[in-house]
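Troubleshooting entry. Yesterday's outputs looked truncated, so today I'm pasting the complete records for two proteins to confirm everything comes through intact. If either block looks cut off, that's the bug. Protein one:
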Amino acid sequence: MPAVTTHYIFHALSPLHFGTGVAVGAIDLPISRETNTRLPNAPGSGIKGVVKDILRGQYGQPDDAKQFRHALGAEPGEQDAERAQGAVSFGDGLLLAFPVRSLAGVFAWVTSPYAIHRLRRFTAACPAAPNVSVGQAVTTAQALMVGPQNGAKKAYLHDLALTVDSDARSTDAARALGDALAALIFPGDAGTPTVDDERKNFARRFAVVSDEDLVHLSTVGCEVRMRNSLELESKRVKDGALWSEEYAPVETIFWGAVMADHINGQDGATTLNRFCRALGSERIAQFGGKATVGKGLARIVIVPAEPSTVMPETVASAGGAAANRNTSPAPTPTPVAARPGIGERVVYPR
């Protein structure tokens, strides 16, 4: 039975720390990053744990305890006979848009072609990003540009001076991408004042940079704060109690996959639809570490599953050769109210 997959949006509303423990380096407590790209990420285990805590007792059905256990797994202390794997799993949050300070316009949300390429594997509602060379930026946001009215423009993002690509095809592609991402990140009915304001704010700060420049900006653009611990009586710093912590900055935006497996006779589509209804359109909660010092506040939006598409029959195997997969259609899901302008459900045959 195929697993049903949709995706979520994860938007930091305060500095965010998904840590990896003590490190040997310039930063004592760094944030989690992908090994191969060095881009910040949000571990799916930490997100699922918070979502599970949010949804305790909120399924709203007579058998809500059973459905809760089926979707998100057994609770600690339950008998072994009752323990079971949850059907719903969360993938790691992958970087979608990173906020960096800008000489003009205060700050910019930047993404890159590779960051968008990864999202497009899960939703056809996201258009392709324009090609960008190192040292360039593509944006339609006049607020980010510096330069003469009829001359070459620059975008000064953190420590980079990027030349703005004025090619019409690139700017049109950036505009279409910015509008699509704004609708994905801030779902709701167009014409609603708060929704329109959020989408316009995103579009006027949006820029596409090269993959290399995104890695650089997401490394130097994270917050690093010094912390200490004081002696109770003297209020002096304890010996060795001075350390540094890294945070993904406010307004960092991630996305990730949510998958529902066919377990214990219940198909994944039904489980995922029930899960989306229980969570609602979006939730704001605390994620990651350093909660007692005001860190980790974020909003999470689960994109409801829409009419399914099947992954292509020919996919690259682990060894690089093509391999055929079974592409039989998945069971028809229970309908869920769809949000306008966001992606389709993707079904991965096994």
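Protein two, checking that the full record survives here as well:
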Amino acid sequence: MVDVERRSALAGLLCAGSAGLAGFASSSPAAAAAAAPAPARPARPAAGPRPPASLLGDEIRRLPTSRKVLALTFNAAWDVDGIDTVLAELRRRRLPATFFPTGTFAEARPAAVRSIADAGHGLGNHSYSHPYFRNLSTTERGDEVRAADEAIRAAAGTEPLPFFRFPYSATTPDAIADVNDLGYAAIEFSADTNGYLGPQGGMSVDKAVERAVDAFAPGAIIQMHVGSNGAGVVLDAEALPLIVDAAVADGYEVVDLRQFLVASAQR
């Protein structure tokens, strides 16, 4: 849990609202996806940036660094209610983020996926149909990952990143090994804000911010969502400015997950 000083600072931020803070470098052009659930090629091209050994062999819930940096990530699996607000805030702050759409989302909302890529953010892979991977065979897992890659690639017009996020964060050692074999690091999270639950699920902007701030640590990965889950209220979009304010006040820099990739030859 955050200490007394951090809670005091957070309370001040929540009262003051989201004052603009700049100084972060803008992210470099993103990556994203392909064509439809009929994979005939490897999930990842051999020449692209690859995860280093430090990101393989286990689920990644904190980045391998001792620096006071953290990464902002967003899942996209249903509606697009929060995307414009999130992208506008990231643009205003000149911040990078990584988005993890499902393949079905990319097929249903290609313009949204393209807008993420056009804004320069990275696109990871959140499976095609969002199943529990523990219930799938190795072949079925590969089909899910490849189909999502194809759909994201087609929607975004750019190459997806070699980052996979498990649906429901339900990882198993064998599923992680299968994803790694496809060339992906299993990027999970240090904390989910739970903003996707919405007010009807007992969440509020303040609670979402507090869950993020409680997880601040070197290499923290914060998970949020761009959808409203049908309620029309996207708490994570409202919480984002306050989370960034709290990070800056605590001496953290928001970094791009792509900084942790290496060229294929360095693998």
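Both blocks look complete. Sanity check on protein two: The beta strands are 69-76, 98-101, 122-123, 163-164, 185-186, 191-192, 220-225, 253-254.
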